[in-house]
Amino acid sequence: MLRDPIIATVTLICGIALAGCGQKPAAVESGSMSGESAVRVSNAGRVPTDEKADLHIARNDAEVVMELDVYQLTVPVGGVSRNEKFWKHVDEDHLDLATHDLLLKNGVRVGIGPNSEWDYFKALIDQYGPTARIGSAAPVRKGTLELPLRTGVDFQDIFYLNDRGVLYGRSYQKCDNLLSVTFEPVPRQPSDARIALCAVVRGLRKQYEVTVLNEERDIEYKRPEYLYDLRFKQDVPQDHFLVLAPSTVSAISSSLGNTFFVRPGPAEPSETVLIFCPRPFRVTGEVKSIPMMKTTPVGQSR
To answer: What are the residue boundaries of the structural domains of the chain, listed by start?
Structure first.
C-alpha cells in the first residue's frame, strides 16, 4: 500500500489512463510464450525491487503469468486417506463448505497448505521418491494440462453425487481416467492462482478396417467424457499450495475417489496424492519456449 497520499493519487490517475488507452493483451493458451520474459513476483504481490530498474512504481496489475509445479506421489493405500496427521498440515476450511462436503462424499479430499509446512511434504516426496513424479507447466497467462491417473482400464463402474445431490453412474470399457487442470492468475489479485479441476474419462475404441488390397488397419478412436458436475475451482493464495488426495470414502470401489486415485497392485493397492504449487511471474522482456510438462527427478527442494 502506498502511504504517501500524493504518490497514491498520481499512481491511481496514471493507472486509469493506462487502462483506458492501453490495449488488452491477447490471452495465451497452454503451451509456450515468445517475445516476453517472466520475473518472479515477490511475497507482497509485486516485482522484487532488486529485479526491476524502476523501483518506485508498484506493479500490481494483471500482467502476470503463472507457472505450475505438479507433484504426484504414490503411497500405500490408506497412507493419506486414513492419515489424520497428514491432514493437520493443510487447511481444509479454506474451501467453501458445500464444495468440501460434495468432494468428501465422492471420495476426494482437498486442502490448502502454506509454504511454511513444505518441509513435511518435502519429506514425503523424498520418502516415496522412486514412485514420485514432478512436472512443470510453462509460465502462461492461462494454462491447461491433463494428468493421467489410471490408464488402460478394461472395465469400471463410476457412481458419484453431483452438485444437486443426484446420484449418477455408468459403466465404462477400455478407458483412461484423467484429471483436466486449468490454472491462471486471479483477476485483481494476480499473485494468487486460480486452479480448476475436472474429472475426465477417455474411452478408447479400436476399429479394424480392410483395404482393397486386403490389408488390415487398426484405428483407435478416443472419446473423452468430462464429468462437469464435479468441476472444482479454487483460489490458492501466494506462498501456498493445493493438495488433492482420496478420502476414506475411496474405499468404495465405484466411488470417484477410488476409480481415479486408487490403483490396484500385484501385492496391495496404492493411492495417488497430487500437490499443485503455483508460482506467479511478472511479464517483462523476452521469454524462450518451455515444454508444458517436462518430468524431472524428485528429491530436490522447491
So the answer is: 65-296
